[in-house]
Amino acid sequence: MREVRIALLEADVSLSAAKAFVANVKAKAVGENVVHSLTPAQTVIKIVHDELTELLGGAQARLQFADAPPSVIMLVGLQGSGKTTHAGKLALHLKEQGRRAMMVAADVYRPAAVEQLQTLGKQIELPVFEKSGADPVAIAREGLAEAKRLGLSTVIIDTAGRLQIDEALMVELERIKEAVRPKEILMVADAMTGQEAANVAKGFHDRLGLTGVVLTKMDGDSRGGAALSIYHASSAPIKFIGVGEKLSALEPFHPDRLASRILGMGDVLTLIERTQSVYSAEQAKELEQKFLKQQFTLDDFLAQLRTVRKMGSFGDILKMIPGMQRALPKNFEVDESQIGKVEAIICSMTRRERTNPSVLNGSRRKRIAGGSGTNVADVNRLIKQFDEAKVMMKKMGGVKKGKLPSKLHYHP
Hints:
434 Repressor (Amino-terminal Domain); 8-stranded mixed sheet; Rossmann fold; globular; Four Helix Bundle (Hemerythrin (Met), subunit A); 9% strand
């Protein structure tokens, strides 16, 4: 339990939430029958994981929609938390589900906030309502009326933020809430703020009654302890997490997966989902055949590299693998520039060289290094690693000449 408490604190869970959690788990663990197939320590970890999942909301919390459209979703939060960007992400997410949304620019204080929302609207081809010089409450009210006129199903209101919670901000948000009666009030919170996020959530919840939270920057170093602190302080469930800069980088929140991430146990399900979103079973089968027949080329390697990059940063992907969080050095970071260097080297080769690297003599390697902005040692290193990988593939093919394990069809 001491290790669990340390894991929670390292994941930026507030001290009060960590203490309460540990005490609760101790009470449940005392006298617990040891599962036949598990050691006592594993039984305790299972109780910890289950309790942590329950503390994060238990089940996935979904958006609630009004019986009579349009449903109003009001985004609140401190300045810099990412409200405007996540208004666009949420609108795109709803559009993909068949719900057309209008975004309402009710932040009249931050420079360029309105222009930013308009730009996002053009990118995802959804309408944005704005009215220069008007009161934010009037903008929200008129935006709702316009959405009704257009027959849209959802209205997303981007409200103003402050560097910290103050009375003027809260009064304005309360007036907007009264004017449009939102079905959802979502607080956008930065996961990197750690324990402070709990205090902010409590402040907003006490005055507005939060229905949920969008936790941003979950693609960074944060292991998500802010989620536990927020839920402990406000009982507002996490509904979405932001996992990147792209507008498509918004994912529904799964408590059980974040529980594993906080405890350093990885997040395999999310990794598989991301893989399947960019990689089909047909592609996997085709690649498998190339492995078995020794036909895997540098062209194929380049295609794989680009596919994996669509899933997010390599560092983020590594942390989803069970045990990897603990195995990696504390401040480990993947140098994404090295990946770009590999791509440049392969792109500087001719088609014949990519298909048959054995033709790469000294002069060819020198030419490739010059064309890719690298040196000959970098080219030599890549070719050596590729040759070693082919040897490993040959051994794998020799173990079983039929098929590779079926799991490789889904995450090769």
